[in-house]
Amino acid sequence: MEVLSWGICLCVILVGVLLRAVVGRLRKLNLPPGPRPWPIIGNLNLIGSLPHRSLHALSQKYGPLMYLRFGSFPVVVGSSVEAARFFLKTHDICFVSRPKTAAGKYTTYNYSDITWSPYGAYWRQARRMCLLELFSAKRLESYEYIRVAEVRALLRGLFESAGTPVLLKDHLSTVSLNVICRMVLGKKYVDRSEAAAIVSPEEFKQMLDELFLLNGVMNIGDSIPWLDFLDLHGYIRRMKKLSKRFDRFLEHVLDEHNQRRRREGDEFVARDMVDVLLQLADDPDLDVKLERHGVKAFTQDLIAGGTESSAVTVEWAISELLKHPEVLEKATEELDRVVGRERWVEEKEVHRLPYVESIVKETMRMHPVAPMLVPRLSREHTTFDGYDIPAGTRVLVNVWTIGRDPSIWDAPEEFRPERFLGSPIDVKGHDFQLLPFGAGRRMCPGYSLGLKVIQLSLANLLHGFKWRLPPGKKAEDLSMEEIFGLSTPRKVPLQAVAEPKLPAHLYTA
User: What residues does heme bind to (predicted)?
Assistant: First the structure.
């Protein structure tokens, strides 16, 4: 009995020493500055309905590298070019994983997509598939005819509505959705003209809006896990409902594609990205087997990512131009000079329109689709600028704040496309002053497609129409408020009037 008592005492002493060592290490950590957290909720009380703006305000007080606690989890927020470069390039491999969230679990087939899947063999394989198969330059070039046809359909639809106010986002979402559906799915499954349409265009757009909203909300269970079962905001219930709606659609798509594969047998040739994914799923040499739910998760990712970014960016661009008619006039002058008034703008000549390209960049600076990049997760302990960033820390990069940094941008709150004329700054992930698509290994794999659709759509909208606000509305009255999600669209959809200015036969051809 005496030996047992001594053993227990020795264990207690050892545990005490270990605890003191752990506490001592924690005390020695030089964490970045930040507000003092509250018990249980941490700093969640400081985050409003527009988290990127809340974090921007905090960064003005605590600096470009902040340490916060969201409930039970440590969070570091980078709001400078140097911090972005550290997280997305210098130590990209340390921050390449993703935190576990309800959105990843319930809306992406348990983290089976490209966006939310954690770092590992599955994600590395997914990235290779995107770069080498789905978004290769050759494949995107082969789909140019689709982008041209759908942009022409957009112009034709606006011509038919000439002189009357239209909700521009509806038209832009339609062209983006049709482009991506034809490229990814092989046809416009949500078009009313398709006999096999399983959802209406309106329903599908609503599903996409809900997907982006729910992937960007601050679900309380993601920060305080023991409250997750309560679903206090009802987000998980909505995620599960949305997942069922998408799954019904995606099952239909995969069934149709597999039927054609069986029907054509050895003569089968892949026509779209779903065909490519299904072929890859059959490849016995894949490092990780691509299951059916993985194909559905990838397909959903491709559709959502390709639709939202283009429509949101072009709507913000037209909004800014309506508030700045002098910029609109300069763009019109460039288009008339370079393209003339007898034809439409072609993809291959966008590079000859530096002012239009500058409008796109300036729009992305002021209104990035994702003002905070999708959260990353620190895989190991690192230090930046003398501060410790422990393993397991969630990392946010606030590109909205970087886009408004007065040390980088002259008059950052003003819409000035001229700042990009002659500037080497681009949006391809190499210049950390402008990161609309992110950077590093987790950069949006379809950014080149999104950029093509944005530039082609905007150039032709400006070339083909005179734009004005509805009667009785003044430019200074145009609201520029936003709503937050995984993307950040206008709070009030833009209503505008488009007046055709080119020969009528161009719109109807």
Answer: 444
